[in-house]
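Structure tokens please, single chain.
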Amino acid sequence: MEKSTIALVAHDHKKSELLEWVNTHIEIMKRCNIVATGTTGGMIADNTGLAVTRYQSGPLGGDQQIGALIAEGNLDALFFFWDPLNPAPHDPDVKALLRLCSVWNVPVACTPATADLMVTSPRFLSAEHVPHKPTY
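Here you go.
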């Protein structure tokens, strides 16, 4: 069975929270192909030993690189711990990334609570779960 590809992204004030969440679910993470934006990906790889494909930092194009994976049908889920209290200069990129998840029916979690529910679902990583991909 081919591994699911998931993206891990976090704003600066949420990086430690994402790392803690990844460590809590490390056995599930080991069963995934992980992609991430630059700094977040480095932090996760360095602190967990997980293999992480790193893209550019979000503001330098990493959000768009992950968006391209979504548009091409090559991303199964996005875990994006964004910081609602500290607006970033690349907020339009963030909104575009979240919009693409809605357009292409890709599950997205923006909080640890939602992420917990996603990865503990019996359908997460199940070969029997084939999400509907819209046709436009």
